[in-house]
Amino acid sequence: MKIKKLQILTLSLITGILIISGCDLGNTTNPRIIELETDCINTVDCEALISIGFFSALQAMVSPHGAHMNLMADQSTSTNHFLNFYEFADEPRLKIDNRPTFASREIFTEIYDGLNVSVEFANNVLKSQANIDPQFKDKFLAQTYFMRGLARGYLGLIFDRGYLLDENNFDTITEDDLDEVIVSYEVLIEASIDDFDRALNIISNSSQSNIMLSAIPDDENSWGQTIFVDFINSFAARVLAGKARTFEEAQQLDWSRVLAYANKGLGGPESLSNFTDFILLNSGSLTGLFNEFVNITNQVVVGNFDTGAGYLPTDIKVLHLMDENYPTSYPEDSVDSGVLTMPEATTNDPRLAYFKYTTNRGFFETTRNRSLFSPYFSARMFANNNWQSNLGRIILITKSEIDYIRAEANLMLNQKVDAAAILEASPAGNGQTILSTNLPSVQLEYLSQNGFSGGYSFSGNESLAEFQLALLREYSVELEGLGGIGLQWFFMRRHDLLQEGTPTMYPFPGRDLEIIGQPIYTFGGVENAGQRGTASGANSWKNLRMKISNQ
Question: What is the dihedral of CA 455, 458, 463, 465, to 10 degrees?
Fold first, then answer.
């Protein structure tokens, strides 16, 4: 049975498949998140649970609260107090407010709850797998392990710790014993990779000829076995590379393992398909699955595309990476009577066309930190302020990102010539991002094509810092909006590129700490720079070009 997205919401919140302890998904009060009234008692119910679980995980992966990760990674900027945007963008950096009384605690809890709901559904299916018709069992189990791997992986990528519940204990653990199943992000990520491997092993060893990925809501979101395998390897590479919170931790990663997954991922030399992206059909509905992340980060205000300003404008960082003479902070005197007067960037990189220059100040507040201002917003990700329409899609991962992970893995393995060759063939050099569907900006003719070639050349003789600058430019320019939440934040922290005092992960939500009787803690703040969970700024992007010039 295939459950449509709108039906999932209806079943979840109205007919009672979910019993939420206290209130709805966005404001749960029980750390276990849910109990199931409908179990995996037959093949139809099991497929329904897998579909709902995918809905929950994928919506978390494109949550509008990914905007805060963009602000911390200097992808976007803001002086707007809505949802505390300003506090996440301000400089010097502030610490995260993790108190249960924090008015915008949904920034953390909605992502956290959505991922844990997915784990809970997966565990229910895995525990009850004997109830699945044998002819569908391998197909269902491969999808379920993939789903749980995604959810566990993103919990590990975003938070410093979380619950590790599986099919053997998820329905027996009591609230009094919850602290016994709280594990570190390292353990969560290894559990995620184990789930991905389980899915791959099921597909590899199954007698079923074509184990499809078909349980994601909407009938058109369906892919064959070879593409499914490429998807799993791609996410395994992203999650494993993203485990490190500092460059010191990154140096301890098993990059050979990362490279092995990436080589089998989208477009890799050992991939099984010719697919170049993992893109979901957009629901076109407020109540269904749609790309809320790019929707909120790519609105235009106080006018239209030609006259307006970005709601969350493109940070100066992105322009500086293409134009080395562009400042690393907005000059505070470049505002005249409310008009932005800073000139346009100058670069040979054709991808400057991804961004729209404006003199409209928009929602920037002149009484706040003017150094946060920017005269650019995204043209590439613009969709007439409506990513919910059928023009929009949910772009989860692309071949371009896999190319960059492969290049980074080779760099970390001190195989610089190989890293350079991969970058040369990627959009950084003479390649292009090839998407299976046109971006809304192309469909609406704001942009002539989905992607351009950067035109940079690489020999393999570049220094570590030069490679880091090149990769940072690709993550910041080419991958913006093409991989869900946190992509730039994850990359920058593992190379110490975040500004001093920037949180490198979210703490365990204060709401849950209060329930299990543990003290509230947090990360971030320039006064805590270099401490666990807070960037030292040792290799801050603001100083990277100067570091290179002094070599």
Answer: 30
> Under a CB-based contact definition with an 8 Å cutoff, are residues 236 and 193 in contact?
yes
The whole domain housing 509 covers 1-551
Whether the pLDDT of residue 104 is over 60: the answer is yes
Q: For 499, which DSSP code?
A: P
Q: In angstroms, rounded to a whole number, what is the distance separating the alpha carbons of residues 367 and 186?
A: 42
What whole-number distance in Å separates Cα of residue 499 and Cα of residue 88? 12
Q: Give me Rg for the CA atoms of the chain.
A: 22
Phi, psi of 335 (to 5 degrees): -130, 125
Question: Which of 97, 76, 95, 58 is closest to 489 using CA atoms?
Answer: 76
pLDDT attached to residue 7: 31
User: By three-state DSSP, how is residue 337 classified?
Assistant: coil
Q: With bands split at pLDDT 50, 70 and 90, how would you rate the model's confidence at 250?
A: very high
User: Under a CB-based contact definition with an 8 Å cutoff, are residues 163 and 182 in contact?
Assistant: yes
**In the prediction, which pLDDT does 26 show?**
35
Residue found by looking up tokens 């293409």 in the block: 322
pLDDT tens figures, 376-417 = 999 999 999 999 887 889 999 999 999 999 999 999 999 999
Average pLDDT of the chain, as a whole number: 91
Over range 498-518, report the average pLDDT.
95
Cβ–Cβ under 8 Å, residues 211 and 139: yes
Q: Is 493 in contact with 244 (CB distance < 8 Å)?
A: yes
Question: Quick one: pLDDT at residue 18?
Answer: 37
CA angle, residues 106, 112, 114, in degrees to nearest 5: 95
**111-144, pLDDT tens digit by residue?**
999 999 999 999 999 999 999 999 999 999 999 9
pTM over 0.85: yes
Q: Provide the pLDDT for residue 289.
A: 84
Residue 30: which pLDDT band, with cuts at 50, 70 and 90? very low
Calculate the alpha carbon distances from 275 to 143, 234, 271, 363 in Å. 19, 12, 9, 40
Distance of CA 277 to the CA centre of its chain: 15
Residue 90 CB: number of other CB atoms within 10 A? 17
How many structural domains compose the chain?
1
Whole-number pLDDT of residue 531: 98
Q: Using CA atoms, how far apart are residues 329 and 326, in angstroms rounded to an integer?
A: 9
Nearest to 201 by CA among 145, 131, 129, 121: 145
Helix (H) or strand (E) run with residue 260 in it: helix 255-263
Q: Assess contact for 223 and 231: CB atoms under 8 A.
A: yes
CATH number at residue 78: 1.25.40.390
* Rounded Cα gap, residues 204 and 457, in angstroms: 39
327, two tokens: 């400042």
Q: Kindly state the tokens that stand for 109.
A: 């809890």
The amino acid sitting at 125 is V
Comparing C-alpha atoms, which of 549, 384, 344, 363 is closest to residue 466?
549
